[in-house]
Amino acid sequence: MDYYIELLNSIKRGVLHPVYLFYGEEGWLREQAVNSLVDFCLQGGGSDFNIDLVDGETARPGDIAASAETLPLFAERRLVVVKNPSFFKAAKKAGREAPEETEALPAAGGETVLLKYLKDPLLSTVLVFNTGEPVDKRKRIFKAVKEAGKAVDFTPLSRADLARWLTQKAGKAGRKFSGRALDELLDAVGPSLQKLTVEFDKLLNYTEQSGVIAPEDVRRLCPPVLEDNIFTIVDAVGSRRCGEALSGIKDMLAAKEPPLKILSMIARQFRLLLQVHDLAGRGCPPREIAARLKMHPYVAQKISAQCKNYSRESLVHAIEGLLDVDVAVKTGGQEFYPAVEHFILKLCAGPRG
């Protein structure tokens, strides 16, 4: 989170670059950074006329350059935010990534005029490219942005960073977490800052009188999402806690979760376990596993830990068994719960991983 704090401090001091590229998985922080730039440009009587929001999926590079070259109206700076620009993505050729762009090669997608602007950007304009898609750092336009301004990779926060962030927010609001409340909130909501913000605001309102966020408050107001319930069930199966796994299935059915959705999510979890198991077996480090499977590092870490309960053979067996359950339920050969119960009991009785 240091990169984000450094960026905010720079904006507050008015030390701005003429060009930014905000990219990476942490979308909530990217949006907050853009909002901070908007607030800065509006302070001191700034006008909305000097803020231009551009759809990067439809705008041409030449149009973006023209907007950036426009002088501010009765203000010191003009802000141009280009959302989801497509020209930072890796170009593919014949099923493979294209080679690194060089000055000898023509710019792709009509980017020449934009590259020309980036060589000598207007100091009265702050041009921001904001994307959650992976960027190709070999592309000329990426290199041009780095030379003219700053590229910021909004990497996902670790669990420790999320815990510190929530603790600080609680302190500023006159609250504190008691017992395992903080861990239970992270377990229930997951690593999404957007979702954590929503759930945390609910807890603030609920604990206004007590000033303490207790574990029971989290359990009452922030029930786990379906994915977390599924994770708990699969974890219980791997640890041979069959009763707990079956109880979790019953709770979800009581909460009106569609049976086939439950079955689909259980199958998805076992497929993820198999993928992580195979990648880890080939020596892939945790961050590379997360990147390859396009998941948050915190989620990948949890799944990696869960893999210890299973062998590769047991995971393949589980996926095959779930396919049999799916066919039996969809064809009317069995009711959902008896079929899942039989599957879980059989899996629990199988050889340990």
Task: Describe this structure as you would to a colleague.
This protein has 353 residues and is an alpha/beta fold. It folds into three domains: 2-153, P-loop containing nucleotide triphosphate hydrolases (Rossmann fold, 3-Layer(aba) Sandwich); 159-221, Helicase, Ruva Protein, domain 3, CATH 1.10.8; 226-349, Zinc Finger, Delta Prime, domain 3 (Up-down Bundle), CATH 1.20.272. 56% of the residues lie in helices and 10% in strands. The chain has 16 helices and nine strands. It has helices spanning 2-12, 27-42, 61-69, 112-119, 140-148, 159-172, 181-189, 193-206, 215-221, 226-238, 242-254, 259-281, 286-292, 297-307, 312-330, 336-349, and strands at residues 19-23, 51-55, 78-83, 92-93, 96-97, 125-131, 150-153, 176-177, 212-213. Helix 13 packs across helix 14. The mean pLDDT is 86.
What brief labels describe this structure?
3 domains, Zinc Finger, Delta Prime, domain 3, alpha/beta, Helicase, Ruva Protein, domain 3, 5-stranded parallel beta sheet, two-stranded antiparallel sheet, 16 helices, Rossmann fold, single chain, 353 residues
Order of helices and strands: HEHEHEEEHEHEHEHHEHHHHHHHH
The backbone outline, from C-alpha atoms, is globular
Helix content percent band: 55-70%
CATH topology heading of the largest domain: Rossmann fold
Instruction: Report the biggest beta sheet as strand number plus sense, adding barrel if it closes.
Output: 5 strands, parallel
CATH class category name of the largest domain: Alpha Beta
Q: Write the CATH homologous superfamily of the largest domain.
A: P-loop containing nucleotide triphosphate hydrolases
Q: What's the structural domain tally?
A: 3
